[in-house]
Specification:
The protein has seven helices and eight strands; from the N terminus they run αββββαββααββααα. The chain has 187 residues and is of the alpha+beta class. A hairpin with a 5-residue loop joins strand 7 and strand 8. The protein is elongated and about 70 Å long. It starts with a helix and ends with a helix. 11% of the residues are buried. The structure holds zinc ion (2 copies).
Length: 187
């Protein structure tokens, strides 16, 4: 890689991190950023994360199994990096997911019980009570045209997913009957 070109894109007189002023000025990446806000440097047309390249140039390879943590919490910084385990990195992060994982209630105060928790495909937790309430609010605001579209959509959905829905309902009733039987046998 072209090291001179790489360092020409770094401002070594960057601001001091509010999170860790003791570390001194950040070295701010002035080149392109990726969607997550990390600096990107192209090597043979392939995008590489600038902070990882900087760490390698200054300190050598990142030890196996470790990831680089930004001590200063400034993603564009290519200076204040420490190799840590993925777990430490997540817990240290100010990422909402790290904070949310510690919470036992949704923002409206409903408990995150297994029954009331919905995990989205990204693994984030959502409160079912709030989700249903939000949906009802949305539905109550629909105009006639919107209501017609929604009922059409539901009809189509039921037709297209008939098998799955029947299987789901059978399983639901089976479980219900089972738990009733259990309750009776305890009585
Ligand atoms: Zn920094
Ligand atoms: Zn809630």
């Amino acid at each position: 890689m072209n090291e001179a070109l790489f360092w020409s894109r770094v401002d070594k007189n960057g601001p001091v991190s509010e999170h860790r002023p003791d570390l001194g000025p950040c070295w701010i990446w002035m080149g392109g950023l990726n969607d997550s806000g990390y600096g990107i440097f192209y090597i043979k047309r392939s995008p590489k994360r600038a902070h990882i390249l900087a760490y390698r140039l200054l300190h050598g390879e990142i030890p196996d199994g470790l990831v680089l943590d930004h001590l200063c919490r400034v993603r564009r910084c290519v200076r204040h990096l420490e190799p840590v385990t993925q777990r430490v990195n997540t817990l240290r992060g100010v990422a909402p997911s790290a904070l949310c994982a510690l919470k036992t209630e949704c923002p409206s105060g409903h408990k995150y019980t297994p029954e009331n928790t919905y995990l989205d495909p990204k693994g984030a937790r959502h409160c079912r009570v709030c989700k249903i309430a939000a949906h009802e609010r949305w539905e109550s605001r629909l105009d006639v045209e919107g209501q017609r579209k929604l009922s059409d959509y539901r009809k189509r959905y039921r037709q297209e997913n008939r098998e799955t829905l029947i299987a789901y309902l059978r399983e639901y009733h089976r479980k219900k009957m089972e738990s009733r039987r259990d309750q009776k046998s305890y009585a």
